Amino acid sequence: MTTFGFLLKSMFRRKLLVTLSMLSLTTAFLLFILLRSVAVLFSGVVADVSDVRMQTSSKYAIIFLLPHRYGEEIASVDGVLDVTHASWFGGAFKEGDDSAMTFAVDPTTYFEVYDDYLISSEHLSAFVELRTAAVAPEAIMERYDLEVGQKVPVTSPIFPTSNGEPWTFDLVGTYRSKNESEADFLPFLFHFEYLKEAAGVSDVGWYTFTIDDPEQSAEIAQIIDSKFENTSDATKTMTESQAFRDFFAQMGDISLMMNGIIGAVFFTMLLLTANTMIHSYRQRIPDLAVLKTLGFSNAKVARFMLIESLLFCTTSAAVGIGFATLALHGIGPFLPSGFVLTVTGPTLIWGAFIAVGLGLVIGLVPAISASRLVIVNALHTR
After folding, report:
1. 235 - beta bridge partners?
2. Torsional sign, CA 234, 239, 244, 245
3. pLDDT given for residue 46 in this prediction
4. I want to staple 341 with a disulfide (CB 3.0 to 4.6 A). Which of 37, 130, 228, 282 is the partner?
C-alpha cells in the first residue's frame, strides 16, 4: 500500500463522521467563495476603471440632475480635456426585469471621453444622426437576444411615457470595451435628445470628463466643486474609479458584512473540524501504537497526522471552490447588469491559504499527541 493510500484509508476509518465533516467544510468554502465574490463586487475592485476619467454629479445623490450649462464650465477648467454627460434611465427590457443599466447620452462626445470603447464608424454615425437611435454592448445583446436593426421597447419607472406605453428605440449598433473586465458593466445607450424632447428633460444626471494628468485629479475636483459650491446644485467630483466604489457604498458596507459572515462561518467550521480530528485521533491511538511498534518514528507518526489533516481540509476546499465557481457561472445571467460575481485570483489565494492554515491548526494537536504517545499506555486503551 502506498503512503497516500494509507492516509486515505486512515482518514476514512469512520466513513460517516468524516464524510459529514467534509461536507460541512466543503459548504464553508462554497460560502466563502460566494460571499467573497459579493464583497469584491461591492468594494468596487472588479472593474478596472481608468483614473484619467473623472465624474461630476450632484453632491447629494445621483438622482438629482445637474444644469446643462455645467458642462461648459467644467470644460473651461485647466487640465480638463473632453467632457460628456449621461443620465440614468432605469430601463427594463422585459416585464419585471429592471436590471440593465440604461443611459441617455450625447453620442457625439460620449465615445470621445470613453475612447476605450470600440464601436464601428458606421454604427457611431447612425447613433449620432438618428434621434431614436440606441447602441448596446455585446453582453446586453446576448442577454436579451437583441439584433442590430430591430426596434427595442424599453420601460422606465423614472421617465414613464404619457400614455403608459414603452419607449421604443432603434438599435443601430453595438460596442464593446478594450478592457475585458468591464464587459458586463457596459450600459445600453440612447440619444439624450430623444429623452429631452419626449420627456421635457433638459438637465443631465452627471458629467464625465478626461484629464491630462491623473496626479492633478484632486486639485481639479476641488476647482470644479468650488465653482458650484454656493448654488442650489452643488456638486461632488471624483475619479471614476472612486465614483464606482461610492455607487456601491450607497447600498451599505456590504463588503464588511460579507467578511463578518465569512469569519463566523469559518470559526464554527474550525471548532467542528477540530473536534472531528481529535475524535478520530482518540479512536486510533492503539493503531498509532502499533505503527510505532513496527518501527515508525515519533516524527513520522506525527507527520502522518498532520498530512491527513491537510488532505482533509484541502480536498474539502477544492470541492467547495469548484462548486462555487459553477454556481457563480450559473447565476450570472440572472444578476442585474453591472453586478458581476467572479472568482478573483486573490480570492483563490485566500481560499488556499485558509485551507492550508486550517489543516495545520487542527492537525497540530493530534500530531503532537501522536509523537508523544507511549506504546504501552496506548495499547492498554484497546
Report:
1. 58
2. negative
3. 46
4. 37
